[in-house]
């Protein structure tokens, strides 16, 4: 356990020991001030050493952490844990005296409101007894965090004294409490609540003259020190004493909350967190709701405030701070305080002109009361720091685009887009359930085009609500055109574009060069076709150094113009991307825009090619120049990059397909990515990419690329069991390749035609096509092509009941692929060879071969190949009569198939063991290799 209400002490061996070493003491104080939250190493260095830490500060910090852990020991009360960014002090309520103190103050306040005066007085007395000295964290250097913690605790101590006196007055122990009140008034001569309580105790003790004298003494001191008159509660009590009534003055109960939103839906988890945090027994909870423009921060804050309002009997204060209102300057704290004072019943003469005095008076007015303060659309911590409750049982909700990190006591609640279910729920509330039910698919597409952004859905829904004759599909059609989508998402005084512009303008209108650089990077990001990016891509796009670009990215993340999805990866909301593209077209020179897009295209193609070479060294489709590519080391890293960037690569290919200047990008990416998409079962993507490549090839008159696109489209049709369609596309490709005398291309297409005829059950024709392809491959010296063709020929020979020839083909393919060093292809060949051994009755060889294939495919993260190896093991164990192991392997293969959404496999959503499932699993057979 730790004590801070006095000097900082740690309990060791049933004894309290002060922490005498200055730096560890400062470190522990910094962690205590942020207990329950992770504190970054950078923040801790600043807290311990200030602006000029020594060069060895980080090493010293680690040593101090170790020292503190030894002193704290292994207990359930306190733990100092390491986090990804720094350290966190995890403390139970019994592990820190200040937590127990604050809990007692909160409990005393609740008992006082319930008029349980005896219990309240005892509870406040226990709270006050927690203090061992005049100040918290005595002996600790006064950093900002330490001062804030001291202020918070000392304000709570004053509230505890006020609460105890109020409870004693409720017990009618007026005379008994006077000595304590005299001391409190001497120590805090300008604190009006103590004077009010002293006046009431004196009056009810029969000392009316002394009560009036106390009022005059307070008035004189306030006028001399601050130039103000006593507040309304004290003045009212003074009049009541003069009248002889002596009743308690009533507080004004403000209710400034705007009406709740009728269409509010969803956010169940966020509402639960807000309710729990705002109504807990801790002191002055503050929740900051952050997120980009249009995400629904204000709507959530207002809805949550209405939901918890009953827990705040002394009222609700609300203000729009204008941090997100175009054309309006953010409100100054002094102006907000004046509004709040008027709502609390103060006259203009009673409101201090001095900011510090106004803050002190505001906190005094909140002491002992339970108010909810809603600060909507804040811009910075400085704007709200003086407006949040400092103690007592009041609470605050703040909405802001950037989380005010300087508010150490605030709980952070970041918002993202609505789930599809909640988004459709909001649309339903606006347009009615009948229209949504009639066009459920259009409704889902509509909220998707709105990016699940509440503001966008609200605008689209409002427009539909005013146009009862429109189908939802009409709005979908209007939003589909990206060039005009932001124009459509505007209605009356609401516009998605205007909401985004507030965040962007804060950068673009800045005098800081770093903000201007971030604004330019945001504009350039609009040129990207994907919604996700990495730092290396941003560097290529921007042209500055990685450190400079990273600073700009972090500024955009802080400003909610980018979101951080994973370490080193960032996402740009679809509607923000359109907004950024508009800005780029407006403010960036056309030559610069084209140059930036060209840099990105070259980088993507070169890196994709390098990644493909590393992942599959023998794949001829990945051969070529890799100048300018991202540095990658090894096949695993290459494969990981391809998997991470696949959506962006497809988006780039799609975006470039219709532009002759960039058609080469689509053609190159279609060539490089075909095998990656195939082995991962992404055949819809494979078909679309081939279609885009065909469009690009036709646009620039590249007949060779057109044939390659038709060949790849035929391969995708084979995978999707559209064999007649595949045959037509492959024959078109073959005709072009024959006319071009492209023997390598002919070999690939002829080999694929062999697969088509295999699936059509015309095995003799299939064998003929594959033998012709094999001859062409050997003549061209294409060893990788020879391996794939031999492997495919072996499959057809197995279908044609020629097991010996089949085994020979697969064994020859295995020997060649090992010479090539292509482990990904080797794993697939091993699976087919294992199946051939099983068909020939060599079960032991089949099992050992399949296990080797399984090991390689797992190492290569080749999920489709892993399924084939599992299937070979399952069918072999079934042939051996081991039904239990057969079930295990075959069901594992089925689960992988379902994750890959492989149309060659059974389409059940929940595989179950049994003869029917096993039959389906066996019938799928080994997979052929596209050429």
UniProtKB/TrEMBL annotation:
<dbReference type="GO" id="GO:0006355">
    <property type="term" value="P:regulation of DNA-templated transcription"/>
</dbReference>
<dbReference type="InterPro" id="IPR016032">
    <property type="entry name" value="Sig_transdc_resp-reg_C-effctor"/>
</dbReference>
<keyword id="KW-0805">Transcription regulation</keyword>
<feature type="repeat" description="TPR">
    <location>
        <begin position="747"/>
        <end position="780"/>
    </location>
</feature>
<feature type="region of interest" description="Disordered">
    <location>
        <begin position="900"/>
        <end position="931"/>
    </location>
</feature>
<dbReference type="Pfam" id="PF00486">
    <property type="entry name" value="Trans_reg_C"/>
</dbReference>
<dbReference type="InterPro" id="IPR051677">
    <property type="entry name" value="AfsR-DnrI-RedD_regulator"/>
</dbReference>
<dbReference type="InterPro" id="IPR005158">
    <property type="entry name" value="BTAD"/>
</dbReference>
<keyword id="KW-0804">Transcription</keyword>
<comment type="similarity">
    <text>Belongs to the AfsR/DnrI/RedD regulatory family.</text>
</comment>
<feature type="DNA-binding region" description="OmpR/PhoB-type">
    <location>
        <begin position="1"/>
        <end position="91"/>
    </location>
</feature>
<dbReference type="Pfam" id="PF13424">
    <property type="entry name" value="TPR_12"/>
</dbReference>
<dbReference type="InterPro" id="IPR011990">
    <property type="entry name" value="TPR-like_helical_dom_sf"/>
</dbReference>
<dbReference type="GO" id="GO:0043531">
    <property type="term" value="F:ADP binding"/>
</dbReference>
<dbReference type="InterPro" id="IPR019734">
    <property type="entry name" value="TPR_rpt"/>
</dbReference>
<keyword id="KW-0802">TPR repeat</keyword>
<protein>
    <submittedName>
        <fullName>Tetratricopeptide repeat protein</fullName>
    </submittedName>
</protein>
<dbReference type="InterPro" id="IPR036388">
    <property type="entry name" value="WH-like_DNA-bd_sf"/>
</dbReference>
<dbReference type="InterPro" id="IPR001867">
    <property type="entry name" value="OmpR/PhoB-type_DNA-bd"/>
</dbReference>
<dbReference type="InterPro" id="IPR027417">
    <property type="entry name" value="P-loop_NTPase"/>
</dbReference>
<feature type="compositionally biased region" description="Polar residues">
    <location>
        <begin position="912"/>
        <end position="923"/>
    </location>
</feature>
<dbReference type="GO" id="GO:0000160">
    <property type="term" value="P:phosphorelay signal transduction system"/>
</dbReference>
<feature type="repeat" description="TPR">
    <location>
        <begin position="867"/>
        <end position="900"/>
    </location>
</feature>
<dbReference type="GO" id="GO:0003677">
    <property type="term" value="F:DNA binding"/>
</dbReference>
<dbReference type="InterPro" id="IPR030458">
    <property type="entry name" value="Glyco_hydro_31_AS"/>
</dbReference>
<keyword id="KW-0238">DNA-binding</keyword>
<dbReference type="Pfam" id="PF03704">
    <property type="entry name" value="BTAD"/>
</dbReference>
<feature type="domain" description="OmpR/PhoB-type">
    <location>
        <begin position="1"/>
        <end position="91"/>
    </location>
</feature>
């Amino acid at each position: 356990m730790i004590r801070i209400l006095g000097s900082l002490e740690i309990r060791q061996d049933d004894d309290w020991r002060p922490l005498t070493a200055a730096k560890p003491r400062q470190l522990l104080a910094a962690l205590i001030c942020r207990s329950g939250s992770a504190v970054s190493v950078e923040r801790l260095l600043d807290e311990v050493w200030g602006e000029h830490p020594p060069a060895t500060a980080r090493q010293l910090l680690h040593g101090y952490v170790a020292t503190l852990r030894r002193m704290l020991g292994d207990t359930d009360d306190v733990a100092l844990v390491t986090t990804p960014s720094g350290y966190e002090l995890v403390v139970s309520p019994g592990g820190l005296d200040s937590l127990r103190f604050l809990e007692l103050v909160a409990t005393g306040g609740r008992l006082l409101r319930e008029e349980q005066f005896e219990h309240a007085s005892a509870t406040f007395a226990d709270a006050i007894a927690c203090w061992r000295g005049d100040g918290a964290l005595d002996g600790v250097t006064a950093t900002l965090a330490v001062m804030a913690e001291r202020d918070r605790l000392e304000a709570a101590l004053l509230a505890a004294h006020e609460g105890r006196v109020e409870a004693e007055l409720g017990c009618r122990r007026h005379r008994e409490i006077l000595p304590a009140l005299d001391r409190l008034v001497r120590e805090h001569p300008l604190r009006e609540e103590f004077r009010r309580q002293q006046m009431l105790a004196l009056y009810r003790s029969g000392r009316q003259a002394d009560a009036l004298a106390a009022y005059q003494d307070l008035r004189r001191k306030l006028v001399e020190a601050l130039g103000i008159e006593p507040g309304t509660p004290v003045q009212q009590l003074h009049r009541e004493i003069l009248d002889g009534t002596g009743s308690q003055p009533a507080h004004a109960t403000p209710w400034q909350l705007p009406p709740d939103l009728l269409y509010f839906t969803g956010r169940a988890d966020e509402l639960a967190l807000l309710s729990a945090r705002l109504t807990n027994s801790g002191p002055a909870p503050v929740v900051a709701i952050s997120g980009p423009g249009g995400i629904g921060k204000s709507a959530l804050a207002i809805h949550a405030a209405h939901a918890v309002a009953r827990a705040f009997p002394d009222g609700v204060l609300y203000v729009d701070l204008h941090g997100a209102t175009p054309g309006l300057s953010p409100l100054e704290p002094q102006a907000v305080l004046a509004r709040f004072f008027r709502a609390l019943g103060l006259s203009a003469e009673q409101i201090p002109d001095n900011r510090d005095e106004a803050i002190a008076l505001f906190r005094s007015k909140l002491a002992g009361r339970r108010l909810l303060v809603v600060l909507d659309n804040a811009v910075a911590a400085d704007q709200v720091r003086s407006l949040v409750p400092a103690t007592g049982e009041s609470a605050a909700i703040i909405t802001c685009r950037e989380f005010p990190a300087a508010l150490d006591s605030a709980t952070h609640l970041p918002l993202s887009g609505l789930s599809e279910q909640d988004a459709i729920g909001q649309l339903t509330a606006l347009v009615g359930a009948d229209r949504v039910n009639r066009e459920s698919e259009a409704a889902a597409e509509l909220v998707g085009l709105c990016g699940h952004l509440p503001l966008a859905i609200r605008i689209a829904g409002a427009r539909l609500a005013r146009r009862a004759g429109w189908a939802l599909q009409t709005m979908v059609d209007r939003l589909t055109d990206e060039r005009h989508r932001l124009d459509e998402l505007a209605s009356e005084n609401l516009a998605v574009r205007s909401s985004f512009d507030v965040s962007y303008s804060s950068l673009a209108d800045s005098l800081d060069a770093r903000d201007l650089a971030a604004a330019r990077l945001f504009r350039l990001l609009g040129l990207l076709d994907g919604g996700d990016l990495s730092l290396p891509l941003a560097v290529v796009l921007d042209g500055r150094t990685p450190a400079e670009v990273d600073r700009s990215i972090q500024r955009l993340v802080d400003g909610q113009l980018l979101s951080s999805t994973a370490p080193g990866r960032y996402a740009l909301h679809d509607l923000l991307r359109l907004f950024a593209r508009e800005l780029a077209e407006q403010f960036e020179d056309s030559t610069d825009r084209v140059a930036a897009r060209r840099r990105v295209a070259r980088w993507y193609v070169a890196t994709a090619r390098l990644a493909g070479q590393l992942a599959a060294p023998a794949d001829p489709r990945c051969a070529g120049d890799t100048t300018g590519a991202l540095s990658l080391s090894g096949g695993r890293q290459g494969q990981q990059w391809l998997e991470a960037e696949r959506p962006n690569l497809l988006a780039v290919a799609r975006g470039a397909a219709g532009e002759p200047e960039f058609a080469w990008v689509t053609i190159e990416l279609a060539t490089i990515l075909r095998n990656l998409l195939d082995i991962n079962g992404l055949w819809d993507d494979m078909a679309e990419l081939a279609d885009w490549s065909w469009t690009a090839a036709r646009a620039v008159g590249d007949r060779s690329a057109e044939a390659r696109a038709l060949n790849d489209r035929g391969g995708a049709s084979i995978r999707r069991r559209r064999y007649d369609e595949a045959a037509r596309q492959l024959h078109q490709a073959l005709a072009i390749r024959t006319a071009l005398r492209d023997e390598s291309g002919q070999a690939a297409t002829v080999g694929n035609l062999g697969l088509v005829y295999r699936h059509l059950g015309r095995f003799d024709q299939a064998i003929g096509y594959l033998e012709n392809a094999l001859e062409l491959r050997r003549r061209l010296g294409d060893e990788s092509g020879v391996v794939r063709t031999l492997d495919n020929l072996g499959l057809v020979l197995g279908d044609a009941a020629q097991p010996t020839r089949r085994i020979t083909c697969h064994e020859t393919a295995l020997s060649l692929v090992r010479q090539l060093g292509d482990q990904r292809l080797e794993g697939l060949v091993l699976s087919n060879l294992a199946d051939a051994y099983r068909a020939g009755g060599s079960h032991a060889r089949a099992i050992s071969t399949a296990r080797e294939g399984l090991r390689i495919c797992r190492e290569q993260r080749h999920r489709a190949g892993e399924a084939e190896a599992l299937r070979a093991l399952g069918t072999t164990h079934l042939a051996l009569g081991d039904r239990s192991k057969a079930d295990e392997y075959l069901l594992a293969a089925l689960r992988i198939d379902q994750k890959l959404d492989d149309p060659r496999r059974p389409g059940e959503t929940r595989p179950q063991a049994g003869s029917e499932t096993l039959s389906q699993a066996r019938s799928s057979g080994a997979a052929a290799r596209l050429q």
